[in-house]
Structures are given as structure tokens and as C-alpha cells.
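Researcher: We're teaching a course module on how sequence relates to structure. For the next exercise, students receive a sequence and then see the predicted structure as C-alpha cells, so they can try to spot secondary structure elements on their own. Here is the exercise chain.
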Amino acid sequence: MIPRERPTPKISEFLRYLASHEQAEGSLPSLNDLSRELGISVAGLREQLEVARALGLVEVRPRTGTRRLSYSFAPAVKQSLAYALAVNQSHFAKYSELRNHIEAAYWDEAVQLLTEEDKTELQNIVARAFEKLRGNSAQVPHEEHRRLHLLIYSRLNNPFVTGLLEAYWEAYEAVGLNMYAGGMDYLEEVWGYHKAMVQSICNGNYTAGRKALVSHIDLLAHRPS
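Model: And here is the predicted structure for the students to work with:
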């Protein structure tokens, strides 16, 4: 068999530098030093640095300089999704479909990784949500909604899955659904499914929990206007 040359990803000189210095700690070298090392102009390096910042790969602070960040898929997805929504907000419905399929597909794997502390926190989230719904001045428990879903999938060792899910909630807020009430009966039903999901997780009945998740997704798809 004739050996094939390993393909090289098409990325900028600066991104390639970051990828080859995964263990680097502290601040990166100055722009002038990097410019000489990489063989590109300072102006060109600044452009590549801005791309890296937008992708969430580096952090630039006054006095402390530039430092490499741990990889996250979320910043790139958030940028692209925000642009898609600016073009046409109907893109949110399509992205929501993708998110729903991801949550259903990874449910079993995700819930089996949760710790006892996670399960306790899920129960606390549900309790706080119902306190908001049934208080003297009823509130939409959006923060609890976001926190519950992201916590369920937080133990997955997959930055692409978690990045896609995190971006969903940014878009959810961008289109104003965090302020959406839809009536108390509707919200009570939504959180009834959340409660069933959490109870099933705590009881180890993951199939029942997934069923509640899917029913909850169907309910959200037909939310009252």
C-alpha cells in the first residue's frame, strides 16, 4: 500500500501556532516576536489575532497581554448563529430542531454521567422554578430553564455537542423567548415535564425521562401564540 501524506488543515499561521502550543501557560509572546517567528507582518498577525479572538481561542487584556484559552466550540457557533438570525429570524426554528435532535440523541449517555450533586441541583432548579411560577408575582423561570437543560448535558466530554447546546440558549434569548410567558397553564405543563425528567433521572429510569423530554419538546413546538 502506498502511504498517503497526512492532510494539513487550512488554518492561519497564528491558529497553527496556537494549535502547536497547547501546553503553553501564561501570556503569549509579543506581536513583534510572533511576527518574526511566524514570518508574517504585524498587520497580518493582528488580523489573524482578531479572528482567534472571535473564535474564543485567545484572550487579550491590557498589561497582561494575549493568552491561549481552552478550546470551546460555542463562540464560533454563537457568532454564526447570531448572523443567521440577523438575516432571518426564521433560522431559529431550524436551529431549534437541530438542538432537539441533539438532546434526544445524547440523553441516555448524558444522564448516566451525572453525579449525585448534579441530581440534587436539578431538583433544586425545579423547586425554584415552581416557586417563581406560583409566587405572589409570577415570573417566567427562564434562568432555571436554561440551567436545567445545560446541566443535564454538562458531563458529556464533547465540546461540539455542548457548544451547540450553549449557542441555542443565546439564540433563545436573542429572539425574545426568555421573556415569553404563554400563560400560566402552559408554563405549569412545561415544568411538569421538567419535573418528570428530573425524577426519572434521580430514580435511574432513563427511558421514562427521555419520553418526558420528547413530550416536552413536542409541547414547546406547539406553544400558544
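Model: If you want an answer key for the exercise: The domain at 13-68 is CATH 1.10.10.10 (Arc Repressor Mutant, subunit A). DSSP finds ten helices and two strands in the chain.
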